[in-house]
């Protein structure tokens, strides 16, 4: 039996993040800390200890994803120090303290992924765990949608208590909008959209290798249904962008197969859930008259005033309280308000560094399955990058956790590819050469 390592611990972290309902927090702690946050901070302490010695197998040295995670953490600490140097109202100070702990918890988990997951098989272990976890979340959401059966009420574990009384099963048109174990139906849809490229990768890869593929096709089907019944624009837009990334990188044969499978899936959904496709179409056809869209743009004027007052470091992480100042349903705008230009650059750097690390790893191999895995990471990260423009992503624990985790795993894949090349006596390509290869190769 293999010894537990960073991938094992991260797999447990993924399970806790996805399966424990987001509204459950640890009892007796005033800051409303979730089990996933506590576990993330614990992983961070382990990561720090591994960096002090050279005998525990943790990677060291520069890495694009690692640098981006560090820069993001430094930007958050700088904003916190800037905001708390003077008086803050008690509610804003408490929120700033809690938000900083939450951000540290997810960011250090990303560092553990980048430095503690050694080798491509261990990277894939964590990614497969994410697929299985998102499938389980989708099952909970589908039951909420179809039967009004909320399994999250049975997932209240000892030592935890809910911070809200409801399970966030909302309504749109004549349908229920499930949230499953997430904090909101929008987050549920985005989490499903993140999982779909990963499930598709393992379904196609298993088939190509002659391995049992039915379980991965089942995961893909369940996650796809979950994304559809979320009735979320953010999910649909994220799926469209992920599909575009994959279709650009996939070989022609797989493109055709994917389009056929996708069309058949939509026809089945139209038959099984009458009116669902029309409702999804109406989300975009009537977007100009949607009150929720108008409400989101109404906040821009107030946000502009805040940005003008604190342009560099923002007014303070977690200090722009929705019930006090109004919601900001755009993470990039919210980051600019709360963390300033420095924070916005750091947030964008996360997505860019994650995509770069995956594409750099892709350029280092001719193996079609590894190239597809790297492309899949880019597709999943693109869902989150777009989602940050359509809702306040960092206010939701599962979407936030996946953002940092996938960025760290992209960095871990790049480390693994470099290690394989060094072991084979091949000098890893320079940045200039790698970019040149990416441009010339295009699709595999």
Automatic annotation (TrEMBL):
Q: Which InterPro entries match?
A: O-antigen_ligase-rel_domated (IPR007016), WaaL-like (IPR051533)
Q: Name one GO molecular function term.
A: ligase activity
Please report the record's description of how this protein sits within the membrane. Answer: Multi-pass membrane protein
Subcellular location, in the record's words?
Answer: Membrane
Cellular compartments per GO CC:
membrane
Primary location recorded for the protein, binned into one broad class = membrane
An example Pfam family from this entry, by short name, is Wzy_C
Q: Where are the transmembrane segments?
A: 7-26, 32-53, 65-83, 95-113, 125-147, 215-248, 260-284, 336-358, 370-388, 394-414
Residues annotated as domain O-antigen ligase-related: 219-348
Source taxon at top rank: Bacteria
Could you list this entry's UniProt keywords, alphabetically sorted.
Ligase, Membrane, Transmembrane, Transmembrane helix
- UniProt protein name: O-antigen ligase family protein
Protein species of origin: Amycolatopsis suaedae
């Amino acid at each position: 039996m293999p010894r537990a390592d960073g991938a094992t611990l991260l797999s447990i972290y993924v399970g806790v993040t996805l399966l424990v309902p987001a509204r459950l927090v640890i009892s007796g702690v005033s800051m409303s800390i979730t089990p996933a946050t506590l576990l993330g901070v614990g992983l961070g302490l382990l990561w720090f200890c591994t960096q002090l010695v050279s005998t525990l197998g943790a990677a060291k040295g520069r890495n694009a994803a690692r640098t981006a995670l560090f820069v993001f953490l430094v930007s958050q600490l700088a904003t916190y120090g800037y905001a708390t140097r003077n008086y803050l109202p008690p509610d804003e100070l408490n929120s700033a303290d809690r938000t900083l702990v939450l951000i540290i918890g997810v960011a250090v988990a990303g560092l553990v992924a980048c430095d503690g997951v050694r080798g491509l098989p261990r990277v894939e272990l964590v990614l497969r765990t994410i697929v299985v976890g998102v499938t389980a979340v989708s099952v909970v959401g589908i039951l909420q949608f179809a039967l009004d059966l909320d399994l999250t009420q049975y997932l209240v574990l000892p030592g935890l208590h809910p911070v809200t009384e409801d399970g966030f099963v909302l309504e749109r048109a004549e349908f229920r909008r499930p949230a499953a174990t997430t904090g909101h139906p929008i987050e549920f849809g985005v989490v499903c959209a993140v999982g779909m490229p990963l499930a598709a990768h393992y379904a196609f890869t298993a088939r190509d290798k002659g391995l049992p593929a039915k379980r991965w096709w089942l995961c893909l089907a369940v996650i796809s249904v979950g994304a559809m019944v979320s009735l979320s624009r953010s999910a649909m837009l994220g799926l469209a962008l992920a599909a575009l990334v994959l279709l650009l990188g996939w070989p022609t044969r797989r493109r055709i197969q994917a389009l056929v499978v996708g069309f058949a899936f939509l026809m089945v959904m139209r038959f099984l859930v009458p009116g669902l496709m029309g409702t999804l179409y109406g989300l975009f056809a009537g977007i100009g008259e949607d009150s929720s869209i108008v409400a989101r743009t109404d906040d821009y004027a107030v946000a502009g005033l805040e940005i003008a007052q604190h342009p560099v470091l923002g007014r303070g992480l977690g200090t722009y309280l929705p019930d006090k100042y109004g919601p900001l349903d755009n993470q990039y705008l919210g980051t600019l308000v709360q963390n300033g230009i420095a924070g916005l650059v750091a947030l964008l750097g996360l997505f860019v560094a994650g995509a770069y690390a995956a594409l750099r790893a892709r350029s280092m191999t001719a193996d079609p399955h590894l190239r597809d895995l790297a492309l899949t990471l880019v597709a999943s990260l693109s869902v989150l990058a777009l989602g940050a423009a359509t809702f306040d992503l960092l206010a939701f624990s599962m979407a936030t956790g996946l953002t940092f985790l996938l960025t760290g795993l992209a960095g871990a894949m790049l480390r693994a590819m470099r290690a394989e090349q060094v072991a084979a006596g091949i000098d890893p390509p320079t940045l200039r050469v790698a970019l040149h290869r990416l441009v010339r190769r295009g699709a595999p």
